[in-house]
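Q: Here's a chain of 66 amino acids. Please give me its 3D structure as tokens.
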Amino acid sequence: MADEGKKGAGAWDATQWHVVAKGETLSKISQKYYGDPNLYGKIFEANKDVLKNPDLIKVGQKLRIP
């Protein structure tokens, strides 16, 4: 039983997701979630698997918000 509790706790994921809308930038998304547009780098770092350049995000992309 104790092992089941640990397995469940490890599976929990607090990651939020954001789908990019027209006109958004990482700075605007950062402002929305963190209250600071200068923290856009946190979002970029968490999404390096889908983003190669923080200035080139596309409408409809699903981004992790750490």
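Q: Can you summarize the key feature?
A: The chain has three helices and two strands.
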